Amino acid sequence: MKKVMLVEDEELILQGIRNIIDWEALGLEVVHMAHNGKEALSLWEKEPVDLVVTDVEMPVMNGLNLLREIRGRDERVRFVILTGYDEFEYARKAIPLDVEDYILKPIDEEQLEAVAKKALLKLREMDRDNAKDMEDRIGWQKFLEGGSSEEEQKTFLSLFPRVKKAELLSAAVMKIDSRSMRKGDMSELLSILQEEACRVIHLGTDTLLLIDSFQTDYTWNGGEGETAGKIRGEIHSRFSCLQNRLESELGIFTFISIGPSFTDYEKLPDAYREAMRMQKYRMLDGYGSCVDDNHIRNRESKDVAIDETQLRKMILQKDRDGAINYIEDLFINNIRKDTDVNNLYQTALKIAILLWDIKGEYKLEEKNMQDLSDMVEGIYGAEDIFGLKAMFISEISEIITYLHTENSAYTPVVKQIMAEVQKNYREELSLKTLAYKYHMNASYLGQIFQKEVGCSFTQYLSNIKNGIAKDLILNTNRRINDIAQEVGYTDTSYFYRKFKQCYGVSPASLREMKKY
User: Are 254 and 243 in contact (CB under 8 A)?
Assistant: First the structure.
């Protein structure tokens, strides 16, 4: 059922509206009843509705202001205005707010029911249109990613005009910074794109595929050379000018990545996938940039210098300012715009794994902090390098806050056992043999260890093994089977199980993350 809110300052009339027609029989459910606009807005924010039936003149906040507030949050909501005869001209000011209808008081039962049915029909039409838009987007996505059948490909290709002689096509993916968008901006943006003769395919609420074309006397074969370079420069210039126009006229910031040019629409999926591949450079270049293969080809592939030992030391010493300044300096001063973005992601993954190791070592994963998979998702979901930096600063601050409250002092025997594990983790270690070595009762030693370290001896040994295995996976090309043997696991499948329990990802998946 669609949800309804009734707003009227006179209680008797409000109850009358509620009972004058059978809302449920129409497929509508009255979920809110309010006596003024402010109360209604508060209820709407807690549980939005599909239809608002409201009086115009009310104390605290009138009906028109209520409509403006809700319309600013949701363009789908339908409105019905209740008004007295002498207020009608005043109520007509709501026309720009896309009001469904006006009902004069006293309210007529048949008219209210007819208007409610009309609003319900409009809501269903809007939902069908939205579903169709979503189906279209999914269909285009499938075609562009190469997942369509041969018949489906022909259907999509038939939607494009015939390529003219000496016509060169180019495709670019435009990512819109939603923070710079205001209500109504999208229609103006699309109007400008139409003026610029760009064909637009909607891939998401903030993502567009732009297809442009221009005439050239040059026979395009995708090759290199002075003429090809000149054409690439012209294409880049056209998209850059379009980007500058959107920024100057509408205040909308975008990131545009341009795929390779083509002369046959069958090559559009290839151009799209290449343009999407370059979208990751938004992390380094930020919104307001326009990139193509030529702009990223010469970026340096050497590793970004990160001293994990130093960063770890500052965190464990609870040097909040030192750790935060280190992250600031690393991301703002040491990572240049011409750096290969893959190296940026690898650096971020190293930091994420370092922080996860510290959380594991000090049992902070039980404090409802982000696990490794959450941090990895945050890395690849960050809008830009500033968002990435902010995520790590927040995480480090939280870790240091918890470390301040933790007592990390261990008794001498527990320290000896921990040192023994660090040194001889490859061997068959057990609490029983160690208790014998240190002349203690095994059960008592286990209780002391659990109390001070926060986990059982077996779990601690497993964490040490997995931590060393993780370093070997990330920093060597050794086979995972050999790494398992190296850290003392004779059964590789058991190693996979224990490793995933520790880090939330399998050894092979972790190595793939590094490759990415």
Answer: yes
Q: DSSP 3-state assignment of 254?
A: strand
> For residues 50 and 86, is the Cβ–Cβ distance under 8 A?
no
Q: CA 168 to CA 189: how far, in whole Å?
A: 24
If one counts every other C-beta atom within 10 angstroms of the C-beta of residue 423, the result is 9
Q: Is 214 helix (H, G, I), strand (E, B) or coil?
A: strand
Q: What is the pTM of this model?
A: 0.53
Secondary structure letter of residue 8 according to DSSP: -
Cα–Cα distance measured from residue 175 to residue 268, given in angstroms and rounded to the nearest whole number? 18
Range of weakest confidence among 44-53, 177-186, 275-284, 321-330: 177-186
Q: Name the CA dihedral angle for 490, 492, 498, 500, rounded to a multiple of 10 degrees.
A: 160
Torsion angle of the four alpha carbons 193, 194, 196, 198, in this order, in degrees rounded to the nearest 10: 80
In this structure, the number of other CB atoms found within 10 A of the CB of residue 358 comes to 19
Report the distance separating Cα 396 and Cα 402, nearest Å: 10
Q: Once rounded to an integer, what is the mean pLDDT over residues 267-289?
A: 88
Nearest CA among 357, 350, 356, 359 for reference residue 403: 359
Pair of tokens at residue 223:
């090759």
Question: Cβ contacts of residue 342 below 8 Å, gap of 6+?
Answer: 301, 516
Task: Please give the helix or strand (H or E) that residue 52 lies within, else none.
Answer: strand 51-55
CA 105, 109, 110, 114 torsion-angle sign = positive
Residue entry with tokens 């991301």: 331
**CA-to-CA separations, 176 to 129, 202, 209, 243, 260, in angstroms, rounded:** 23, 12, 11, 10, 21
Q: Does position 300 have pLDDT exceeding 80, yes or no?
A: no
Q: Which residues contact 42 (CB under 8 A, 6 or more apart)?
A: none
**Across residues 476-483, what is the average pLDDT?**
88
